[in-house]
Automatic annotation (TrEMBL), chains A, B:
Pfam family for this entry, one: Mo-co_dimer
A GO molecular-function descriptor: heme binding
Required cofactor names: Mo-molybdopterin
Name by which UniProt lists this protein: Molybdenum-dependent oxidoreductase-like protein
Oxidoreductase molybdopterin-binding domain span: 54-225
Gene Ontology process terms (BP): sulfur compound metabolic process
Highest taxon above the source species: Bacteria
Annotated keywords: Metal-binding, Molybdenum, Oxidoreductase
Length: 366, 366
């Protein structure tokens, strides 16, 4: 083999009963989810927050980092970290989730990063409002989309690229996106975009371009690989599909009791078991969470914590379960203020995106 | 099913051609390796350092944490974090590697945490020498082994347990082990043992008990599950085997060029390609690293960085490769000052431990 295309092919679906492949395992060993006991923390410690890196973590240096802002602007600008810091300092709490979360539980399974349900995390990101940067440069009338380019280089399906995503100008401004240089009060860890990244509240993680080096306003709809080809919800290869955008509602329980090492099966003692978890949606605040302890036959409303200032960050919920001996299946679902409700089983799609199928935890009560 | 034993069974070997199982994927999604570009850093940032948690990360609190020191001592002692900090402050740079690193590349594959080759990391750990604590309590003549117990509870092969490992009294003292409350200058992250853990330089990670709450000196050899059953190198179930102890020599290259997203295949442009990596051994300092760019036919000595103060921490190496168009297989091997050399192919064992088979990276030069 002597061409890049031969080594870089379109994703396929797993055959019936096909185990996780060597390619999927390579990705699972590099990238990681948040162990579900990480739901315990209001703000996820950096090493527990999920990470998905498309290519390699690039070698970067805050000292000489430049962010270019150009295209359909009155005045192209270039910023170093010092200049950005001088522009202000805004901290927002954001729940980020990978668009592929839940992919490996789909039937048939799209072969890619094989997430189960833990590709999530909540962090406090500090930076400057993207809209402030755009206004400083002066948005020209012909601007349509905003294109963000990272320093991470790789190839997907034969296309050599620097990771790049576009947002409409409206979303770039209205989403409250920030250009961030801190995570949880410290410099960004390398795997989260050091020294500079975009953070787009409410959107799946692919929009929050890491190692951000360029912002370009363009006069047409962005048709780059990650927008037009990769992150698209389609039923088959001919389906034009619709883009992956905001995070669908989801609730996750912190699995109670203690686990078996290998099967991760859970064991708890009979009695009152306080169940706890978090729920989020990128569309609107969470307004209701329901818990079932009998595999979805009966549902009980959980108690929700007060809504914080950052309305799209996850919300804690709790429910006291009177656990009786035997095997039980816990499940949970979230409802948001936009009227969206989490399905028991989400609709399948070929890329395995936005799969917010309800979590199921089997527990043996002893 | 209504007993813990039914859900918690002995590990098995994968069938020929059997893909990674759902159980293995659950572990791979929770635990994570160090993406190999993390070899770039002398000290691994916490979120990039490998993590293996047997059960759940426990809920812990530095404020009321107690470490009990008892058993065959003159005077049982109990320490809070403040008391430990008052005893001194020693910082050591340690390379930790999971004993199961490389497991998923074995044939047949032992089914457990499916590491490829990235279960490693180097950190600066700050704490107090274990030997200082033991001397303060007064080691009795009858003391044989030292047992370390963490706050993490779970079940393995039907045995409900708090994670617990033993070291001989000699190793506990001579290894230079510390009881650490800082990693890389900050509090331990939850997944690395917050607020207190043991760090045993030179030993595979299973010895460095996290969430450390008890140190007990006993008058016999420790026969707990993790020493006598789990971490044992055996060829079959009847083999009494030998314990997993110190880290076998290994070298890893930072894969050059850029990757394909899915296959992780690498691409570089022809010309001089600076290869860089790290090598380590838990037995003695690394004294030689060899690189091959033709799948092991010819070997070239790499340039080693100066040996640091912490002789068992990894050592950087470099080699300039004159890359010509076509497909090439890079491989690398390490030699330490004890006379141990890394094999091209390590011996198989049923638990998949200490697999230091040489890394192979296929690169397409364009």
């Amino acid at each position: 083999m002597d061409s890049i295309e031969e080594f870089s092919v379109r994703g396929r679906l797993a055959d019936t009963g096909e185990g996780i492949t060597a390619d999927e395992l390579q990705l699972a060993a590099r990238n990681h989810g948040m162990p579900l006991e990480g739901l315990r923390y209001d703000v996820t410690p950096p090493g527990l927050h999920y990470v998905l890196v498309h290519y390699d973590i690039p070698a970067t240096n805050a000292g000489d980092w430049r962010l270019e802002l150009n295209g359909c602007v009155e005045q192209p600008l270039s910023f170093g970290l010092t200049e950005l810091r001088a522009m202000g300092r805004r901290t927002i709490r954001v729940t980020l989730e990978c668009a592929g979360n839940g992919r490996a539980t789909l039937q048939p399974r799209p072969i890619s990063q094989p997430w189960l349900q833990e590709a999530v995390g909540t962090a406090e990101w500090t930076g400057v409002l993207l809209s402030d940067l755009l206004r400083l440069a002066g948005i020209r009338e012909d601007a349509v989309d905003v294109v963000f380019t990272g320093a991470d280089r790789g190839v997907e399906r034969g296309v050599v690229q620097d990771y790049q995503r576009g947002l409409s100008l409206t979303e770039a401004i209205d989403s409250g996106a920030i250009v961030a240089w801190e995570m949880n009060g410290g410099p960004l860890p390398p795997q989260h975009g050091y020294p500079l990244r975009l953070v787009v509240p409410g959107w799946y993680g692919m929009a929050s371009v890491k190692w951000l080096r360029s912002i370009e306003l363009i006069d047409h709809e962005f048709d780059g690989f990650q927008n037009a080809v990769a992150y698209v919800i389609r039923q088959n290869l001919d389906d034009p599909g619709r883009p992956v955008t905001r995070i669908e509602p989801r609730a996750l329980l912190m699995p109670p009791g203690f686990p078996d090492f290998m099967s991760r099966h859970r064991f708890v003692a009979a009695g009152t078991v306080p169940l706890f978890g978090r729920a989020w949606s990128g569309w609107a605040p969470i307004e209701r969470v329901e818990v079932s302890t009998d595999a979805g036959v009966n549902w009980h409303e959980a108690t929700l914590d007060a809504l914080g200032n950052d309305e799209l960050a996850w919300r804690a919920f709790a429910y006291d379960w009177e656990a009786t001996p035997g095997e039980h299946v816990l499940t949970v679902r979230a409802y948001d203020a936009s009227g969206r409700e989490q399905p028991i089983e989400a609709e399948w799609n070929r890329g395995g995106f936005s799969n917010n199928t309800a979590q199921r935890i089997t527990v043996l009560v002893t």
